[in-house]
Specification:
Belongs to the RecN family. This is DNA repair protein RecN. The chain has about 625 residues and is α/β, with parallel strands linked by helices. About 50% of the residues lie in helices and about 15% in strands. The chain has a six-stranded antiparallel sheet with strand order 2-1-4-5-6-7. Strands 8-12-13-3-14-15 form a six-stranded mixed sheet. Helix 11 crosses helix 12. The longest helix is centred in the C-terminal third of the chain and has 46 residues. The radius of gyration is 41 Å and the shape is elongated.
């Protein structure tokens, strides 16, 4: 059974539901903690949902994360804010388990070695997504439903034996479904993570987004032209390769069309013939019924109906009654006399219509035979060309479809020459658009190289060079263009460019990806970015530059960073501290995660700077860092 929406107990803990004692309850949000529909912000104008413009909420964010039984963490809940969230703590406290938990939640590989002695680990998260996010459509396909507050809850459990289960919006789903969703939700950058931008297709897509909206529109035009060219080329190959079979199929269609067109049926004709045949077949009985009705209404006016001795007709009786009442002085009777006069008019009108009906009624055996023959011919067409129950409408639909198919089966020299001309014209359009797309990519690659170079210089990697290589093959157009795109890195002057995830050392890779992500920030659709030890081996001014860039990236995305540098942590919007303490009862190390602010945050930064949380010098330096970071964020 899938985990249900959790409820909040005192102390901020989430509790398990009675419905599933084995599943960890997903993190909940108290109703009183929810943001109003719209609120102002010092960072920008209000936007729907209460998020300040530019905070990345329009892309979506992870609001809560609960980790249970994973590594050093027994049971901890993280409240994740917008913007930049940093995770700090002593070495070995379990900071990296936060990244591990996020990776696991979003479909990453389950490592049973991370499961604590309890034998079961679980991670749950609550996603806040905009209504137009494509994630909702895929989640709905999997049977997931939003929570009461409109968020999407994810859950993942792993046993010590390696068995893993995933839940999405209250439904059990394959882990692959969550992993598929994560490609558009989460990017994790760390020394041992599979990088999203290591895939050539994603590298090309990232460069296209960086090139801007006009380039993307050009690319859409290319894709449409390429699809049209491939369709025409495939049609031409099919007609040439299957000329005999297509000609035979066309002959069958032409024979059927000739048979239908010879009869030239009209829509609804079968129903009209049925009615006419019935009327012709019942002509004598219908005439007798009409004559009897006319005698009753108006009598035998012409004397040819044999109505001598019959009671007085209705018209005469009504007229007599009308005259009798109209001759009185009583107003009520006079009104009734007027009603009788109206009745006389109605009876007279009906009798005229009956006379016309009899005049048109023709008991013609020859005409009846014609109608029956026509109906039989149409019935034969229905049996041959229509599905059961469709009638003559099915025959006409078959004829329309046959005419369309004939245009596709034409293998005459004229038709093949026309199709070949259309194919060549489409290919020329593909070549033209492909060349323009390539030019746009090359121009964007030059701009990207320059921007990333500036970012790397500020991250103590000014000798490194990251660039896009655009290798074009005009004679081999593909669905995305004629280019092979590769993201390359040369770690130092003279080093050969290599794929970026191979050209950087473990300590450099996160900084390289940070520089790339900062450059791509405005165009990258991934809402949540995670950096693990992005500042490894860095100190001094470069550390402050890392914090500055992370804060800039957090204007457009939700960014979570595991760091050991106070210069980075000072830029955070939300600061989480991982504490460890021995659990003597269980004989293991327990970890707690808490948010710090005010003086508690100053003490944590002081600990990171000097190793002493209560150091006066360290606290003064911490306050200075916070002031510098605040000033930089305002700039």
């Amino acid at each position: 059974m899938a985990p249900r929406t959790p409820t909040r107990e005192r102390g901020g803990r989430s509790r398990r539901t009675a419905a599933d004692p084995d599943a960890t309850a997903a993190p909940g949000t108290a109703a009183e903690d929810t943001a109003p529909a719209s609120q102002p912000s010092a960072d920008g104008p209000a936007v729907p949902g209460g998020a300040p413009a530019g905070d990345g909420r329009g892309r979506g964010r992870l609001t809560e994360l609960r980790i249970r039984g994973l590594g050093a963490i027994d049971d901890a809940t993280l409240e994740l804010g917008r913007g930049l969230t940093v995770v700090t703590g002593e070495t070995g406290a379990g900071k990296t388990m936060v990244v591990t938990g996020l990776t696991l939640l979003f479909g990453g590989r389950a490592d049973p070695g991370r499961v604590r002695a309890t034998g079961r680990a679980g991670v749950e998260g609550r996603l806040e997504l905009p209504p137009d996010s494509p994630v909702w459509a895929r989640a709905a396909d999997a049977g997931a439903e939003p929570d009461d507050d409109g968020s999407l809850i994810l859950a993942r459990t792993v046993s010590a034996e390696g068995r893993s289960r995933a839940h999405l919006g209250g439904r059990a789903v394959p882990v692959g479904v969550v992993a598929e969703l994560s490609e558009g939700l989460l990017a994790v950058h760390g020394q041992s993570d599979q990088l999203r931008l290591s895939r050539p297709a994603e590298q090309r897509a990232a460069l296209d987004r960086y090139a801007g909206p006009a380039h993307l529109r050009l690319l859409e035009s290319y894709r449409a032209a390429h699809a049209r060219w491939r369709e025409l080329a495939a049609d031409l190959d099919r007609r040439r390769g299957q000329a005999r079979e297509l000609a035979q199929a066309a002959e069958v269609l032409r024979h059927g069309l000739a048979e239908i067109e010879a009869l030239a049926p009209e829509p609804g004709e079968d129903e009209a013939l049925d009615a006419q045949a019935k009327r012709l077949g019942d002509a004598d009985a219908l005439r007798a019924a009409v004559d009897e009705a006319r005698v009753a209404l108006v009598g035998d006016v012409t004397g040819d109906l044999g109505a001598e001795g019959l009671p007085q007709d209705a018209t005469a009786a009504l007229a007599t009654a009308e005259r009798a009442l109209a001759g009185t002085d009583d107003p009520a009777l006079v009104l009734l006399a007027r009603d009788l006069a109206d009745a006389v008019a109605v009876v007279s009108d009906v009798s005229v219509q009956l006379a016309g009906y009899v005049a048109d009624l023709d008991a013609d055996p020859a005409r009846l035979a014609e109608v029956l023959d026509r109906r039989a011919a149409l019935t034969a067409l229905v049996r041959k060309y229509a599905d059961p129950g469709e009638g003559l409408a099915g025959v006409l639909a078959w004829a329309d479809d046959a005419r369309r198919k004939l245009s596709e089966l034409d293998v005459s020299d004229e038709a093949l020459e026309a199709l070949e001309g259309a194919r060549d014209a489409a290919r020329a359009e593909v070549d033209d658009l492909g060349a323009r797309v390539s030019a746009g990519r090359r121009a964007a690659a030059d701009g990207f190289t320059a921007e990333v170079g500036r970012e790397l210089a500020g991250l103590a990697m000014k000798s490194a060079r990251v660039s896009f290589a655009v290798d074009s093959h005009p004679g081999e157009p593909g669905p995305e263009g004629v280019d092979e795109v590769a993201l390359l890195m040369a770690a130092h002057p003279g080093a050969p460019p290599r794929p970026v995830h191979r050209g950087a050392s473990g300590g450099e890779l996160s900084r390289v990806m940070l520089a790339i992500e900062v450059v791509f920030a405005g165009a990258d659709p991934v809402p949540v970015m995670v950096f693990d030890e992005v500042d490894a081996g860095v100190g001094g001014q470069a550390a402050g530059e890392i914090g500055r860039r992370l804060a800039r990236l957090a204007r457009e995305h939700q960014v979570v960073v595991v760091t050991h540098l106070a210069q980075v942590a000072a830029f955070a919007d939300t600061h989480l501290v991982v504490d460890k303490s021995p659990d003597t009862a269980a004989g293991v190390t327990a970890t707690d995660i808490r948010a710090v602010d005010g003086e508690d945050r100053v003490r944590e930064l002081a600990r990171m700077l000097s190793g002493l949380a209560d150091s006066g010098t360290g606290q003064a330096h911490a306050r200075e860092l916070l002031a510098v970071a605040a000033e930089a964020r305002r700039g």
